[in-house]
Amino acid sequence: MTAVDSGPTLLERFLAEQSDLTAVERFANRHDADLLPGPARYYRDLIPLERPRPGQQYGFEVDLDSCTGCKACVTACHSLNGLDDDESWRSVGLLHGGTPLAPLQQTVTTTCHHCLDPACLNGCPVDAYEKDPVTGIVSHLDDQCIGCGYCTLMCPYEVPRFNPARGIVRKCDMCRGRLEVGEAPACVQACPTSAIRISVVDTAALAAEAATGGQLVPGAPPSSVTLPTTVYRTRRADLDDLQAADHLSLRPAQAHPPLALMLVLTQLAVGAVLADVVVRLTAGAGVATALRATNAVVAAVMGLVALGASVLHLGRPRYAFRAVIGFRHSWLSREIVAFGLFAALASLYAATTWFAVGAATAVVGLVGVASSVMIYRVTHRAWWRARVSGPKFALTTVMCGAATALATVAFTPVGRDLARPLVTVLAGATLVKLVFEASLFGHRWGDDPTDLARTARLLMGELRTTTLWRFGLGVLGGVVLPLAAAAALVAPRPASALPAVVGALAVIAVVAGELIERWQFFRAVAGPRMPGGIA
Predict the structure, then answer these.
(1) What's the whole-model pTM score?
(2) pLDDT value of residue 28
(3) Of 194, 270, 458, 462, which residue is most buried, by most CB within 10 angstroms?
(4) Helices and strands per DSSP (H, E), number in the chain
(5) Distance (Å, rounded) from C-alpha 523 to C-alpha 84?
(6) Per-residue confidence (pLDDT) for residue 494, from 0 to 100
(7) Would the pLDDT of 156 be above 70?
(8) 221/100: higher pLDDT
(9) Residue 124: what are its φ and ψ, rounded to 5°?
(10) Which CATH number, 3.30.70.20, 3.55.30.10, 3.30.310.10, 3.30.559.10, labels domain 43-244?
(11) Topology adopted by domain 257-523
């Protein structure tokens, strides 16, 4: 009887697999033997042969005439960097224009520009960015990030992307690991027309060129903001006449509810302390004592609640303590330090009611409000510049402080003489603020919309309902109800409960209106960006 050959055993198969070369080893052998597919032998020509010298750094170089918009670079970046399904570090935008007889279309591939003066690095409160002193590559330190997302607002090119699943921001690092071993970045390797390459750029020349007020491509932000190092080349003379395909598009931004709540509550708390200090300086002892007992507690509680609300905004809230690391360069860190100190002083003031502590609390609170203004001013968004957000934040502080003091007066018969001055301040600040906000709508008309025009169109279009609620609650809480409370307080025989109820409703309406306004502050902002596709 002949034995049947059953083939190699399981152990023999495992030994055979282990003796085989790994995929990496097989690729290396084929690479050294010059047996790779045709395009692979040219990859090395798309990266510099030498590292940058002093005064130089790496930068992307894009040949627009060769870019076909195939998005192979987008796919390669996504696949070779192991990005999540809804994550992308490179995009392809579109420019179009020309004439009916000679229309023109140009695709634009874009990713991080590894700027000479990176706004993401400057604004990060936890120093989660670093710029390599030799290569100039701007990298994100994932382990250091707390997920505040401030860099996504700072960058004028919308490069850093928040990843909700991971709770952090991530971005392109020019495949620095590949460059270190002589391999081209994923996007460079994947481009079938060799439209993307890595080159060595002269930093002084780039800075001088950016200072002239130019931009990378039509529709891009001014290069003077961050000094980007990407170089776009084309032989077309009429490229400057093109516009971004999404030039007329309206895109509501992220709402950031925790930030809206934090801003309003911190300004309410500062306003409450400020009103208390002013009353103590101008009114009688009895009135001051009545206000102090309430406003100090309101300031302390609202300050602590505001800090708690800000933590809810973070993707990794357990690391919130890191947010003070960037105090030397980040306005966000300075705001956190200011309001943290404010909450501590407000708590001490509520416990002691010492005037010196109250005055110090008010000063620190105002510094915090000013820091809030600067946080958004440095993002180079038209609706967030200081002359817009500054008056808004200041008037919110005055309105909320006057409303809180009026509600306290309504509960305290000894302070009813203050009703008229407080109503005058509250109603005046409210009307000024509402008129100031309404003045934006004048930017709505025009064939060539600016960023402010886009904001106005959003407020009057997609966000119209919330705009009506905002103005309705503003008038109700800042004018109608305060007048009713004052009338009830100065009546010959005032009802005991009516002034208190109306005063409390006024505070609620004012705060609700300001919360809607601050929600729109984020939702309706139109910021700078690279050209996108057709919306």
Answers:
(1) 0.87
(2) 63
(3) 270
(4) 18, 10
(5) 26
(6) 55
(7) yes
(8) 221
(9) -65, 125
(10) 3.30.70.20
(11) Formate dehydrogenase/DMSO reductase fold (1.20.1630)
